[in-house]
Amino acid sequence: MCHSSHDDLDIRTKIRMSGIKGLQGVVRKTVNDELQANIWDPQHMDKIVPSLLFNLQHVEEAESRSPSPLQATEKEKESPTELAERCLRELLGRAAYGNIKNAIKPVLIHLDNHSLWEPKIFATCCFRIIMYSIQPQHSHLVIQQLLGHLDANSKSAATVRAGIVEVLSEAAVIAASGSVGPTVLEVFNTLLRQLRLSIDYALTGSYDCAAGISTKIIKEHEERMFQEAVIKTIGSFASTLPTYQQSEVMVFIMNKVPLPSSQQSIEAGKAGENRNRLTQIMLLKSLLQVSVGFQCSNMLTALPSAFLDRLLSAALMEDAEIRLFVLEILISFIDRHGNRQKFSTISTISDISVLKLKVDKCSRQDTVFMKKHGQQLYRHIYLICKEESNVQAHYEALYSMLMLISIELANEEVVVDLIRLVLAVQEIAQINEDNLTAYNRCALFALGAAYLNLISQLTTVPTFCQHIHEVIQMRQKEAPYLLPEDVFVERPRLSKSLDHLGPEVFFWQSKISEVLGGSGYNSDRLSTPYIPQLTDEDRLSKRKSIGETISLQVEVESRNSPEREQRAPAEEITYETLKKAIVDSVAVEEQERERRRQVVEKFQKAPFEEIAAHCGARATLLQSKLNQIFEITIRPPPSPSGTITAAYGQPQNHSIPVYEMKFPDLCVY
C-alpha cells in the first residue's frame, strides 16, 4: 500500500496514507511488546524502512503542486510525506542500542539502490531526521555505520563517495553535541584513508592500478571535489570537539604526514614523489582546517614538542605550497584574538591605532613556551626567508607571523630577539650569499621595514620610532623599491642596483641598540647579531657543552678562591671556545655511534667462540678490579698517632672489623 502507483492521484494518496498508518499502528503495537514478533528483526526492518523512505522521496512532487493558501494546511495534514516522516521519527526514537544497526542498514541500501547519494539532498535530509530522532547516546553507532559504508564504497564513483562524506559531515556535527563515543579518531582515520585512496585514484586514472581505463581527466576533477569534501568534513567535525580532543586529532593527522626525517615511508621515483607531495598537501590542508577552529590559551598545550618538531620540519621543504600551509597553520595557532586579518597586507602605516589591535599581557605559560621553543621558531623563520621560491603569499604569512608573535607571545626579551631576527633577514638581502633574485631581496627589505615600523609603535620608544621613520622616509625618496608599497603589488617596481645602496636606507643594529638600550632594553643582546642554530641536535649538544663548561669553571673558581691572587687566570669563554666545544662534542658523538655500530655488528656476525672468549676476558678483568676494591675496603684504619703499621700491599694479620672501630661522636648519626 505504501508503494501504491494508482493512476488517480487522490486515490494513490489515500492508499499510501492508509499503508503508512498501518505501519505506524504495527510499530506502536509491537515495538515494546515482548509477546509479539520482534519488529527490529532485519526481515521486518527491510520492509518497513524502505516503505517510509519511498514516501519521503516524493516531497518535491508534493511541493511542486503548490496548493492555494487556504488549502495548504489541509494538504499538509493529508501529505504521505509528512506522515511517513513522523512515523520514521517515532520508530527511530524507540530504537534501543542493539536495534540501531538493523534500522540504519535498510536506509543505506535504499540510498544505494536508487542512486540517491549523488544529489545528496535527500540523503542528507534522511540522516538529519535519523540523528535528531534517535537517543543521543546512540549517535556514534550511526557514525560507525556510515564509516563502514564509506569503506565499502571505496571503489565507487567519486560523486557517490563525496555524497556519503557530506552526509557523514552533517551526522558527525549533530552527533558531537551528544555522544561520539570511541569513534573520534576512527572518523579521522577513515577519512584520511579515503583521502589517500583518492590521491592514488587521481594519479593512476583508475580504481584498479592494473586496469588501463583512460578516464584520467574526468576522474581527476571528480576526485579533487571528493578530496575537498573530505577536508571540509574533517574541519567541520573537529570544530565541534572539545579542546583536548582537537589537540589529539591534530597530532594524529600530523603523524600521518610523510616526512623525510620521520618513520613514515617515503616512496621513491617520480610517481612516488607526486604521491608523497599530494599526500603532504592534503594532510596539511586537513590540519589547517582543524587548527582554524582551535582555541587554546596555553601554547604549551596547543603545540607540544613532538608535534611542533614535525610541523617545523615540513616548513623547510623545497615545495613552496607546503611551506605556505605550515606558516598558515602556525599563524592559526598563535592568533588567539582575531588579529590575523589586520596584517593581511604588508604596509608601513604611520598610525597603528587604526588597526584596533586586541592586545593582552603575555602570560606566564606564553613566556615559558617562548623560552622553550622561541629559538626554534626564529631559526625556521630565518631559513624560510632564504628560500628563492617564495612569492608574495609567503612574505605576507611571514609578516603576519612576526607581528602575531610580537602581540600574542612577546615580552621584552622576545621583542629584542625578533628585532635581531629581522635585522639578520635584512642582512640576507644586503649581502646576498644565497644569490636571491631582485624580487626576493626587495621583498625581504620591505618585510623588515614593515615589521620594524609596527614594532617601533608598539614599544612606544620615541627615539626608536624616530630612527625607523627616518629610514622609511629616506627609502621613499631614494629607494622606494625597498618598501612594501612598491614591492607587494601586482606589478612590483624593482631595482637591479641593490649592491650599491647607501647606508642611510638601512636599519642599523648599533643605532637601534643605542636607542632601545636607553629605554631599559637589553642593549648587549640587541647589539649581538642573530645567528641561527644549525640543527636540533646541535642545539642539544650546545646546551650540554655550555653547561659543562660553565660548571667546570665555577668549580675551579670555588676550589681556588682562597688563593685567588696566586692562581693562573681562568680561560675566557668566547664564541670560538663554544664553537670548538660544539664541534668536539659532535665528533665524540660520531665516534661513540661508530663504536656502538661495530659492537652490534660484531655480536651479529662473529663466531660464538670469539664472543665467549671476549666476554670471559671482560669478566676476568671485572673480577680483578672487584678484588682490589675489596682489599682496600677491609684494610684497617690508620692508628691514632698517624703512623702506618704495615707497608702497602702486605697482609694485615690483626685487622679490626668495621663494627668494632671507634669513631668520634660527631661522626656517628
In short:
The chain is 65% helix and 0% strand. The protein has 27 helices and no strands.
Largest sheet: none
Count of strand segments? 0
Instruction: Provide the succession of SSEs.
Output: HHHHHHHHHHHHHHHHHHHHHHHHHHH
What proportion of the residues is helical, as a percent range?
55-70%
Shape: extended
Compute the average pLDDT: 80
Uncertain parts: 60-76, 210-216, 536-570, 639-653
Strand content: under 5%
**From the alpha-carbon coordinates, what is the Rg to the nearest angstrom?**
37 Å
- Helical region count? 27
- Tell me the span between the first and last alpha carbons: 98 Å
Query: Which structural class do the helices and strands define?
Result: mainly alpha
Protein name: Protein EFR3 homolog B
Subcellular location: Cell membrane; Cytoplasm, Cytosol
Family: Belongs to the EFR3 family.
Membrane topology: Lipid-anchor
